[in-house]
Fold this protein.
Amino acid sequence: MIKYTLRRLFSLIPVMFIVSIIVFMIVHLTPGNPATLILGEESTKESVAQLEKQLGLDKPLLVQFFYWLKNILMGDFGQSVYSSEPVLRIILNHIGPTFSLTIFALILILLIAIPTAIFVVWKRNSLLDPLFISVTLLGVSIPEFWFAILLVLGFAVTFPIFPVAGYAAFGDGVLNWIYHLFLPAFVLAAVEIGLVARMLRDGMLEAVNQDYIRTARAKGVKESIVLMKHVFSNALIPTTTVIATIVAGLMGGTVIIETIFTIPGIGQLLIDSIYRRDYPVIQGVILFIAAIYVLVNLFVDLLYTFLDPRIRYD
Amino acid sequence: MLEVKNLKAYIDVDAGVVKAVDDVSFSIKAGETVGIVGESGSGKSVLALSLMQLNPKPPVFYPQGEILFEGQNLLTMKESELRKIRGNKISMIFQDPMSSLNPIFRIEKQLIEAIRTHQDLSRKDAERKAIELLTDVGIPDPERRMRDYPHQFSGGMRQRVMIAIALACRPKLLIADEPTTALDVTIQAQILELLASIQKKYGTAIIIITHDLGVVAKLADRVMVMYSGRIVEEGSTADIFYRTSMPYTWSLLRSMPNIGSAGNERLVPIQGQPPNLITPPKGCNFNPRCLFAGPECLEVDPVLAERGNGHLAACVLSQREFNERKRQLEAVEREGVRG
Ligand SMILES: Nc1ncnc2c1ncn2[C@@H]1O[C@H](COP(=O)(O)OP(=O)(O)O)[C@@H](O)[C@H]1O
Ligand SMILES: [Mg+2]
């Protein structure tokens, strides 16, 4: 297992290398001189030249790349051209809100999707199942921005239960944290609950007719325990990948929701730095998002060995 | 101990109603081993699952009958009461040991679940009991093997684990539905020996369901032959093998190797297909395939009738007529082979 983990970690190196080439090229594939783009059309020749020097743009491309890569490997992602702050610090400052939102949304997704799926499978021969299918279909087709605005109107404006926007860190009190994150997390969760519940239901309906479930019933085990213990844990395996994809997506920052609710997360940062043509920050954020995806995937592969003992990598 | 009276188990399907078990009556005494034989699709599994009340409802329903276990009717019993019987007083093992164990739980967990569902034991005691059970069914090094997952066992070993699970509460009745069908021949023999030794040791009544008469010959005191959802012949194992009383049983015997007489006989497969259980043939269900069928068989649906001392058969032919026709047919066939 440790050997496999190490091997997988090593295999991330070429992946991240290719990603870094692409990220590096962003600056150079955008038409026009990056320094001019950053400074604007009316900038003087001198200031453009100075910025080019600061960004290293006056050197050959290959030299620039390895120089850039070397710095990143040493933890130096460059400086924001907008605020002159180190890119790494800026990103770290924005992880908190996005991470909070991710955790909150994930908890909501699991808390609602799991019992719903179990209940639907329990009542699988009733009209509940077709109803469930329609509702989940409706759920996954809700436009996020529309639903967000609807909730804000309903629960922040008409009935001011929650704030219209804003963010409070976990450290400023759990209740305050929940108070600010509930609506955005709920919107993020809402579009995914249907998907996760549907995956779980499909998996459970497949497992429920397996021979080993009949064995469990033949032991005299209660149907509710059969469903929750035997059926559910087998259905969880195929659903894990879906949940992981959702987590990776949320961790990469959710531009629309973070913008609507003015949550200073990764998505917000990405949008802002694109407006400011702050290339070092854009590059840093994209590298960060790529790393998240790769790491979440690795984590899921490792998680599988715990969920399914038949999977052995060594 | 177990008495089944006029049981019907029908299945609702798109094409109609499958009469999988159609008016079946029999009884099982404590400690006896009874075989149920019949071709695949004759309703053996549906009957077995009826005894556990484990047929999926829907599509299966029971329009008629009683299943009396220790005097109580399982058909009208509440689910919570049934659960106290399942795995406790009546246990069941299945055809495919590969898929009958939960792939993601350790053997230990699955055994302990069987024990603790019915017995108020601490985890430690249940663990000790689990080791005993595994030893009992012949699994070497049970303390260690208990921590393994099903996929780490061979087919025969998994069936032993299934038997251990079934025996966890010392049931009065063990239903084994084709327990050796999925296994290699040598392993089959070992599993059958194990079942026989359990029967001897604990006096558990066993219903052994199979399409293989050889299995029945080895294990059963009494045999019921099933055809298209009905019992068509019933008697002691000797009755069935040496005093066969109706054409289906006879055809079944002729289609299988190594039993009955010397073993130098030709195998004669049963011609035709098992009948459609949604719209069975008019008259006797076996008439389209029966070598002895006469005009009467297209009209009369025979019921089980006494052929002497607990030996029952469902055929319009009397024992004498049947023996006579059988002799004629065998003589003709011998001529055919020679000429
Ligand atoms: N769940 C089910 N749904 C529909 N038909 C079924 C179901 N279970 C059994 N049957 C049908 O019932 C008949 C008897 O099946 P079964 O008892 O499994 O036969 P056996 O065990 O003797 O091979 C078959 O025709 C089979 O197709
Ligand atoms: Mg069967």
